[in-house]
Amino acid sequence: MIRLILMCCLVAGCTVGKPVTITKIKLVQPAIPTALLTCPGSPIVPAATRQSQVAEYVAALWRAHAICYDHLAAVKQTLQVPLITR
């Protein structure tokens, strides 16, 4: 009988007055525009006879690279932002 009384006292001592509320965290998948998921194709290599044609080709390559680099940077920035809603 004494054991039963002691167990009741021990169990009663472990109860919490108020229940703990657990906040659910909802993960949100960011929407990446399809325009950022594509890159322009490489320009066609010209049959260059002048240095100005080579320079135009190199400039076109640089522009295509810059666009792709900017798109990748925008996607990276979008994915690094913590998106937590409650």
Automatic annotation (TrEMBL):
Which domain of life does the protein's organism represent? Bacteria
> What is the official name of this protein in its record?
Uncharacterized protein
